[in-house]
């Protein structure tokens, strides 16, 4: 990290339903506001981000740098988000140029999962390690890879797309169009879909976990299957990257040790003979994205 640790940074975390903006110092939020994400295309989204950012900056004029975490694939050279699946009209969005003009400052752009992973690595469950892999398990599955305390983007900026690892060749198709991708068979969406089919009625993820914990065999089988796929993916990444720790975040990971213990068991089995994966639950919750966006501005 290049900036001094006591500098105040501005983080902006863009999501499908809300935009979080916060002043962050030493990994701690000193002021934060949250506004709805506009649905009128990327220009209206940028206007909302700039307005909210300037409001926070009025209370923290000493802000040294600004970082923005955004969903979807990014062209880092151009500072453009190619598309954000959950934000209407957010295609070929020139984030860096638009926000630099609006704030009158340089903008550091980062993938939202990478940003959250950096926050957990520096100030959350991965603190003290030099390498970690963050996995968010929610509507989809995403991730961020931190090597030597820095985000690893890869040659094309796509490193960390853990949800698109093929776990079940010939299986259901993920949002990327990849057949059998991890998020298509093990995300919260996949769990709810499989349960709705098994029980012949609409079900959400929370209900599936409640039934599984009460001993319902159909729900338990669905949860065991998702844990198996996630744990196996972790075991494979242990063999490739050999990180010190895996950090699991996102809504599905927050159901408690019931699910995490199953993932750990599958990961340990899949990695047997190599090295035991260390798996921890994320600590920063919904603030990881905005903290990480700020930290990315220091990198």
Description:
The protein has a 5-stranded mixed beta sheet with strand order 3-2-1-4-8, with helices on both faces. Strands 11-10-9-12-13 form a 5-stranded mixed beta sheet. The N and C termini lie close together (5 Å). Helix 3 (112-123) crosses helix 9, helix 5 packs antiparallel against helix 7 (217-241) and helix 7 crosses helix 8. Helix 8 links the parallel strand 12 and strand 13 (279-281). It is built from 9 helices and 13 strands. It is globular. The protein has 299 residues and is an alpha/beta fold. The protein has 2 domains: 8-116 and 287-296, ATPase, nucleotide binding domain (Nucleotidyltransferase, domain 5, 2-Layer Sandwich); 129-281, 2-Layer Sandwich (Nucleotidyltransferase, domain 5), CATH 3.30.420. The chain has helices at 42-59, 95-103, 112-123, 182-186, 188-199, 205-213, 217-241, 257-270, 288-296, and strands spanning 8-14, 18-25, 28-36, 65-70, 74-75, 80-83, 91-93, 107-111, 131-137, 141-147, 150-151, 245-249, 279-281.
Secondary structure elements and their pairing?
Layout lengths: L7 E7 L3 E8 L2 E9 L5 H18 L5 E6 L3 E2 L4 E4 L7 E3 L1 H9 L3 E5 H12 L7 E7 L3 E7 L2 E2 L30 H5 L1 H12 L5 H9 L3 H25 L3 E5 L7 H14 L8 E3 L6 H9 L3
Parallel strand pairs: 1-4, 4-8, 9-12, 12-13
Antiparallel strand pairs: 1-2, 2-3, 5-6, 6-7, 9-10, 10-11
Helix pairs in contact: 1-2, 3-9, 5-7, 6-7, 7-8
């Amino acid at each position: 990290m290049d900036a001094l640790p006591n500098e105040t940074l501005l983080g902006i975390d863009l999501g499908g339903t809300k935009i979080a903006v916060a002043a962050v110092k030493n990994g701690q939020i000193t002021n934060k506001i949250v506004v709805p994400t506009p649905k009128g295309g990327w220009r209206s989204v940028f206007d909302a981000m700039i307005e909210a950012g300037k409001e926070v900056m009025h209370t923290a004029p000493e802000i040294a740098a600004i970082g923005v975490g955004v969903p979807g694939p990014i062209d880092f050279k151009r500072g453009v988000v190619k598309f954000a699946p959950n934000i209407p009209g957010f295609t070929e969005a020139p984030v860096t140029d638009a926000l630099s003009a609006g704030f009158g400052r340089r903008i550091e752009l980062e993938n939202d999962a990478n940003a959250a992973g950096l926050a957990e690595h520096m100030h959350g469950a991965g603190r003290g390690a030099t390498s970690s892999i963050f996995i968010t398990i929610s509507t989809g599955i995403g991730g961020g890879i931190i090597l030597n305390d820095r985000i690893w983007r890869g040659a094309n900026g796509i490193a960390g797309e853990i949800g698109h690892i093929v776990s079940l060749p010939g299986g259901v198709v993920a949002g990327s169009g990849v057949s059998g991708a991890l998020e298509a068979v093990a995300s919260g969406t996949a769990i709810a879909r499989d349960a709705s089919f098994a029980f012949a009625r609409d079900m959400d993820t929370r209900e599936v976990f409640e039934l599984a914990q009460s001993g319902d065999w159909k729900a338990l089988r669905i949860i065991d299957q998702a844990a198996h796929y996630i744990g196996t993916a972790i075991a494979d990444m242990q063999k490739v990257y050999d990180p010190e720790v895996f950090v699991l975040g996102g809504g599905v990971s927050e159901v408690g040790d019931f699910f995490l213990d199953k993932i750990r068991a599958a990961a340990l089995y899949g990695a047997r003979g190599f090295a035991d994966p260390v798996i921890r639950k994320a600590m920063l919750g919904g603030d990881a994205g905005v903290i990480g966006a700020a930290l990315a501005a220091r990198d």
